[in-house]
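Suppose you are handed only two things: the residues of a chain and a line of SMILES describing flavin-adenine dinucleotide. What would the bound structure be? This form records exactly that question and the answer produced for it, so the two can be stored side by side and reused later without any lookup.

QUESTION INPUTS
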Amino acid sequence: MKPAKFDYVAPTTVDGAVEALRAANGEGKVLAGGQSLLPLLNFRMARPAVLVDLNGIKELSFIELRGDRVAIGALTRHREIEQSPLIASKLPVMAAAMRHVAHLAIRNRGTIGGSLSHADPAAELPMLSLFYGAELSVHGPSGRRAIAAEDFFVDALTNCLEPEEIVVEIEFPILQHNGCAFEEAARRFGDFALASIAVSVRRSEARIDDARVAVMGVADTPLRLREVERELGAIEVNDQTPDRFAELVTASVSANGDLHASAEYRQHLLGQLARRAMQTALSEVIR
Ligand SMILES: Cc1cc2nc3c(=O)[nH]c(=O)nc-3n(C[C@H](O)[C@H](O)[C@H](O)COP(=O)(O)OP(=O)(O)OC[C@H]3O[C@@H](n4cnc5c(N)ncnc54)[C@H](O)[C@@H]3O)c2cc1C
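ANSWER OUTPUT
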């Protein structure tokens, strides 16, 4: 199929893009990498009157260190994140996850702003934004505002943006941890995840002093498992810790079922991935 008729504008500034959305009166849609939006247009599941192409706004594409955070511009491609030495050294879980994002051709075009805004419950970057406690900077007619990643994802494929707002950049706090892992299961490598987990720990001797845990593919939004993070602080680290962690994770999540996998299978998968992730996180501890 072909898209319904639309007008096309290609602003070169963020203000210009917001103005174009405002002028479209609720009928505008932003185009970034187009990897999710173009299929929706072709199937006529989205019928915007105006397409506002962000690709000419050069200031939206960057990865930079800002003190104890890494800032990423909304138009930064998945492939740039995957290949960035800064991401590899400061956000290692993100570095490990990026090769699971779709296929190379899609990673060459898809952007972080597009992935977060599309809010697919089985997409890696939305989950990573929760995992790191990221903050999104969005620009609209009344200027900029910050949104915590935990407030951004409202439901499957639904975010909390106003129609005239654009995600411009995302700041990821750097975790001061010494062990981490990312595990994912998909039917074919590069497909959307059936289930996935990200783990990061700061371990000293037989204790976990601080932990981060997030999962995706199992609910309508990605989930940060704060209760599991807290409980990890109360258990002793030994050979049983990965099994105990898997129990904590599966007890705190009630997986969804769909045509790709039953709820029972996803729940089982999540336990297996959790065990494997904790084994890796504890075995790769940097002292
Ligand atoms: C076959 C296939 C497999 C895929 N597999 C995976 C996968 O395994 N994991 C994964 O994470 N993703 C996967 N994707 C999705 C891919 O990562 C997309 O790139 C991503 O979801 C959307 O990014 P985009 O830049 O292409 O956004 P677009 O398609 O251009 O836009 C997507 C949506 O976000 C809005 N939008 C875009 N940028 C902004 C912004 N800056 N501010 C506000 N709104 C904005 C658009 O208006 C649109 O509604 C897959 C896609 C395909 C086609």
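WHAT STANDS OUT: DSSP finds twelve helices and 14 strands in the chain. The longest strand covers residues 195-204.
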